[in-house]
Amino acid sequence: KNEVEQSPQNLTAQEGEFITINCSYSVGISALHWLQQHPGGGIVSLFMLSSGKKKHGRLIATINIQEKHSSLHITASHPRDSAVYICAVLKDNTGNQFYFGTGTSLTVIP
Amino acid sequence: NAGVTQTPKFQVLKTGQSMTLQCAQDMNHEYMSWYRQDPGMGLRLIHYSVGAGITDQGEVPNGYNVSRSTTEDFPLRLLSAAPSQTSVYFCASSIFAGQETQYFGPGTRLLVL
């Protein structure tokens, strides 16, 4: 079983909808990252979280350390948000190794 | 800044051949890492480095070697290519080990026949 689970695997939304992508993990972590992989393959880092909540434009990321859960929200979704969103955790005691979820493929329809 | 660069973009190898995937960054980052991405499996860490002269194994290191002789460069060597190494390879870097924003290269698509 993967130590990092994302849901849903695939998501289709109408433009303007509020979107939530979930990430659950089963190990102790020191940080969690959200990444965006564009249809062309390039990967961009969106957020790094160790606690609480961060906001950047229409994107909001939250983490609950006690529940071992993080969410990525997209408000007022747009077709350009169509991408694969990947959750990655930095495990405690490994120091420098990331473990990744398999990603959520988001398609936003105009 | 060029950021993180990778060469080549695409490569076809025959089983048993060796090759080196190049990765370079111009941001003076200490932490560099190599990942492979396979359908349905997500990214997996192959090797990483926390500074020049220091490397360590990740989750899937078998069949790969790395070295870090300078801060800028972190090449990945396939010793004897196998079809199971067909994948997309990404190099990434960050200021320090894992706690900062990671910057990814554009990827190298490798096909081993």
| Beta strands of chain A, count | 11
Assign a percent range to the helix content of chain B: under 10%
How widely separated are the two ends of chain A?
Answer: 36 Å
What structural class do you assign from the helix and strand content of chain B?
A: mainly beta
Structural overview:
The complex is a heterodimer of chains A (110) and B (113). Chain A is an all-beta fold. In chain A, 0% of the residues lie in helices and 61% in strands. In chain A, strands 2, 4, 5, 9, 10 and 11 form a six-stranded mixed beta sheet that branches. In chain A, strands 1-3-8-7-6 form a five-stranded antiparallel beta sheet, with no helix packed on it. In chain A, strand 4 and strand 5 form a beta hairpin. Chain A is globular and about 45 Å long. Helix content of chain B is 0%, strand content 51%. In chain B, strands 2, 4, 5, 6, 9, 10 and 11 form a seven-stranded mixed beta sheet that branches. Chain B is globular and about 35 Å long. The mean pLDDT of chain B is 94. At the A-B interface, strand 4, strand 5, strand 9 and strand 10 of A face strand 4, strand 5, strand 9 and strand 10 of B.
